[in-house]
Amino acid sequence: MSDNFLSSYKKIMNLELPIIESVINCLKQHFQTDINAQKISLQATPREFEGELTLVVFPFVKIAKCKPEELAQKIGDFLLENCPMISKFNIVKGFLNLSISPKIWTKTLMQIAENQDFGQATPKNIKVMVEYSSPNTNKPLHLGHLRNNFLGFSVSNILQKAGFEVMKSNIVNDRGIHICKSMLAYKKFGKNETPQSVGKKGDHLVGDYYVIFDKAYKQEIQELLPTYQREFPNEELEKLMEKVEKNTPLMLEAQEMLRKWEQNDPETIELWKKMNGWVYEGFAQTYQQMGVSFDKIYYESETYLLGKKTVEQGLKDGIFFKKENQSVWVDLTNDGLDQKLLLRSDGTSVYITQDLGLADLKFQDFPMQQSVYVVGNEQDYHFKVLKLVMQKLGRSYANGIFHLSYGMVELPSGKMKSREGTVVDADDLMAEMIDIARQRTFELGKTDGFSAEDSEKLYKMLALGALKYYLLKVDPQKKMMFNPEDSIDFQGDTGVYVQFAHAKIAAIVRRAEMLEIPYDSNAFENVNSLANVEIEIIRHLANFPERIETAASRYDPSSLVAYVYELAKIYSRFYAELSVFQEENVAKRSLRIALSKQAGRVIALSMNLLGIDVPEKM
RNA sequence: GCGUGCGUAGUUCAAUGGAUAGAAUAUCAGAUUUCGGCUCUGAGGGUUGAAGGUUCGAGUCCUUCCGUGCGCACCA
């Protein structure tokens, strides 16, 4: 453990550090060895054993040259004598289970309550750019984008809480053959429709034309194939198909359109601007509904020429090389990869070229040390190359490039395929979820006494909460199954369960305030016996800063989902086992209110980091 | 073929190299004169894909094999 880590550790965990220090001292005294703090494993004691924190002594057995039990006994005795917060201990095999004095727990709760910024780490003075969303403008957003956006937004929040300075960015892929296809279909079959004239969101309208193009294109291929087969009777079918696909009239026309676009042909540019404009309006609505936002938006049309200079400079510096046909390459064979093309023989860019340029542009705009790309795992290779190339170019931020590679979202029926019409549209999905939330919540009478506006707000909160929670609870790296039935579930490990816990807590706090029961630190500081479930909550609350740190270091919101679920679950048990207002001991009653208040606060904070709102009533 | 992920209860997912591999769901059985029953408690359900190896200790690290996804364009 570096000094650096230790010092940040000290700030966030006032509970464990004294014990760790004490263990180090113990080993020093008894065995004359200076043990690394990192080797000391303190973990939460499983519920079936007595105690709250457990020290694993196995790692020191070799040094101590005695049986694990003996060693545990020695350390336990030492702690009892030198570490006032330890009230007793027991030993099971090589595990030293420590009981913390109840007063410490009361004090911990006081500290949490008095900390206005609980969970907010001190500034690290490190800038991070988080790029996410990155839509193509020829189609509306779908379920896969939802995972991407929720991940990107949440990771940004988490990094901020962990003390980083964060810039959220979005690169909009607004040019290229894909949008030309929509444009061409519109030109041919569009009859001057507009989003207003057909009453449709712009991104959906443009997406419709993309589908129209694709259908007509497929038909052309079918029609052309026999001709080609006659012409090249000895060619393999696969290669023949490639030829046909490249040469249908529609495809040739789309490519011609792209050329015109690149030459700034006024008519093409005008159509392009018009249709992209519709799409942006549509996207803005969708982003708003999703509850995500960006600090900086890049457009591919403005960045796609960047990177050429970068490549030329690298060529001059001998980092890249030129082949006979004038194409430029980078040799990554020593890094376990291949040679990779950076500029075509005609000097034009390829996909990665502009990413090199964009990376530098980002750095100009926001001199970051870390750069996170939230992009699907089908691009793993691409980002390996990007990082390596930037490292070879000696960019200061190159080592901080991190590809937050997430797995595909699959459906019970299999993969989403646009051809087969099995793509789940983001707008539709969110709307459906809100409908279901409305239906269920209304049936249960949960919104009795709500204004129409408040009701709608709640339905949306529950629906989006369910969806975000569902998509964020899985390790990003892994592919995940999206089961529509489960995603709108309100019970068990779900967003609504956690939201409900928060609403119950809010009700308790409201009542306490109405009854004017004090619950500040003075009101409960003398409580020195706590129920197990109360200790569990405090212990869990105290871990909050550390859990944020972990989530930030792994760029992984799922660990935070697990955290907040665990907290809601413990609290629900507390709620069932103990009564707040029927407790006769006034100090204890106050402690329970304070405990509730803090649990509610941390639930809300955690959920907000996930991009989820929590209700006061539901 | 090469590269790179992933295989854990019926299902969907957890598990900084640490105790008897945990949740949720579904199934079954219970709880509530109590602050909000979208709640709580309990039961059954596992050869962690297979085989070796490292380790005091392996779902986790290494090797091989099997299954599966993704990537291997002068496409983006």
Describe the structure.
With 618 residues, the chain is of the alpha/beta class. The protein has a domain at 3-100: Arginyl tRNA synthetase N-terminal domain (Gyrase A, domain 2, 2-Layer Sandwich), CATH 3.30.1360.70. The protein contains 25 helices and 14 strands. The protein has helices at 3-12, 17-31, 58-64, 68-82, 102-114, 143-161, 177-189, 195-198, 202-231, 237-247, 249-262, 266-290, 300-303, 308-316, 351-365, 380-392, 426-443, 452-472, 484-487, 495-514, 521-524, 532-542, 544-554, 558-577, 586-609, and strands spanning 42-44, 53-56, 86-92, 95-100, 127-131, 165-172, 296-299, 321-322, 328-331, 339-343, 370-376, 401-406, 409-410, 480-481. Residues 1-13 have low confidence and may be disordered. The structure holds one RNA strand of 76 nucleotides.
Amount of helix: 55-70%
Kindly estimate the percentage of residues that lie in beta strands according to DSSP. 5-15%
* General shape: globular
CATH fold field value of one domain:
Gyrase A, domain 2
CATH superfamily of one domain: Arginyl tRNA synthetase N-terminal domain
The description of the largest β-sheet is: 5 strands, parallel
Question: What distance lies between the first and last C-alpha atoms, to the nearest angstrom?
Answer: 46 Å
Number of helix segments? 25
Please give the CATH architecture of one domain.
2-Layer Sandwich
* pLDDT averaged over residues: 92
* SSE class: alpha/beta
Q: CATH class of one domain, please? A: Alpha Beta
User: Could you list the spans in which at least 5 consecutive residues all have pLDDT below 50?
Assistant: 1-13
Please list the strands of the largest sheet in the order they lie side by side: 7-6-5-11-12
Output the radius of gyration. 30 Å
